[in-house]
Amino acid sequence: MKKLTTLLAATALASLMATAAWSKTFVYCSEASPEGFDPGLYTGGQTFDAAAHTVYNRLVEFKRGTTELEPALAESWEISADGKEYTFKLRKGVKFQTTEYFTPTRELNADDVIFSFERQYKADNPWNKYVPGASWEYFSGMGLPDVLDKIEKVDDLTVKITLKRPEAPLLANLGMPFISIVSKEYADKLQADGKMELMNQQPLGTGPFTFVAYQPDAAIRYKANPDYWGGKQKIDDLVFAITTDAAVRAQKLKAGECHLMSYPNAADVAELKADPNLHISEQAGLNVAYLAYNTLVAPFDKVEVRKALNMAINRQAIVDAVFQGAATVAKNPIPPTMWSYNDAVVDDAFDPEAAKKMLEDAGVSGLKMKIWAMPVARPYMLNARRAAELMQADLAKIGVEVEIVSYEWAEYLKLSSAKDRDGAAILGWTGDNGDPDNFLDTLLGCDAVGGNNRAQWCNKEFDDLMTKAKETADVAERTKLYEEAQVIFKREAPWNTLDHSLAVVPMSKKVSGFVQSPLGDFVFEGVDIAE
């Protein structure tokens, strides 16, 4: 069966590439299928790479290789003195992509920007629930419905956003994939035709690449957008060859079947570095991996239980086995390379005997629990199954029986966010915008419960600090607030913080122009390959 699946995937990829035989084609060996092609609906990095960073643009974007914002669909902006009004001047002459399924009749204007926002927070908008069971997890999880007062069209190329209160991270948030700008004209046509679901299957934006076709779990094909406002790309065709096995991705790269791959196994990196035809890009990842306890479900609602489990797990052993030196044990929910990291926080010690006694003192015995293991490799967790097995063995030593469970990736993300989820889930995060709010509030704030907050942890003391930090633009003051929040987090232990990893991107030496992102994105704008 495995051989048949591999053959079908290879056949699908060959079919998708056939029409590009005489063009310059770049093949990226990606690690997972996208959840869909509407980046507003999802939080997975593979979805952002497959949609937000290929098909779409945002008002502002991050300069490649940095967390520095630069103009994109908005060529300039002004912020009022009270921090409540943001006025964006849109770039003139931006064209939406022409595809086999839609031909635009007008250029980007303010209507598209307003529609892109309103569909995510207005319950009466017909697009608010166009995908059954899906939600605007990022938009709501970051508290935007609470802070956004209104968005207005000043003229065709000017949009004004008014907030209820100052929101220091707002501009950085607008550079994130979830607020990609979509075509209102295309949406109106889909709605009129009764085919709204195609927005999530046949994307259309203003970005550098135009969507062509998707063979589920096998390949995605794009072509360079000839009308891209940033200039036509040097490569003619871009193919995502979806390859879930990291070892197989490495084999394909070495064989020349793809030009760049994501997330190699730690054990394969030395061999890849030794290959004279390859180049390895490395940088400290702006990331964290964690084990999120469901703090709404007993006995994980007791901080003593969570602390005891943390003390029973040997995180250094996990780092050694899974990353082979390419990661460090985490003690805080933000990486040490991020401003406001509180190095004074005292980490939980690895102490199984103390952990066992703490469980007994909490009145917990014969505990049986589930650990959820991610089915895919991410930079912050290359092998969740192996990590879960090590946790299972450690917890058995203090009398805790662990069952390891997993699901297909899109299902895993959905089910792990449920408020009644059992056990503890392995997950992680790569920063989206370089702001601590993107970790602390997005993953642990009360607004994110039932979404990105997989611990379902709502602590008023912590949440008040998040609100105060958002409302001041003073970096020194925000730093103090975030440092205090990290102390509360460590005291309450909604997670077991596992690791911060080194991000490694292997590629062919034929590749030029690829810039590794501190945000973990795979962006192919500006990339070229030698003939």
Automatic annotation (TrEMBL):
Q: Where in the cell is it found?
A: Periplasm
Q: Which residues form a coiled coil?
A: none
Q: Where is the Solute-binding protein family domain?
A: 68-448
- The signal peptide, as residue positions, is 1-20
- At the top level, the lineage of the source is Bacteria
Q: Which UniProt keywords apply?
A: Signal
Q: Which InterPro entries match?
A: Peptide/Ni-bd, SBP_5, SBP_5_CS, SBP_5_dom
What family does this chain come from, according to its entry? Belongs to the bacterial solute-binding protein 5 family.
Write down what this protein is called.
ABC transporter substrate-binding protein
Which species does this protein come from?
Shinella lacus
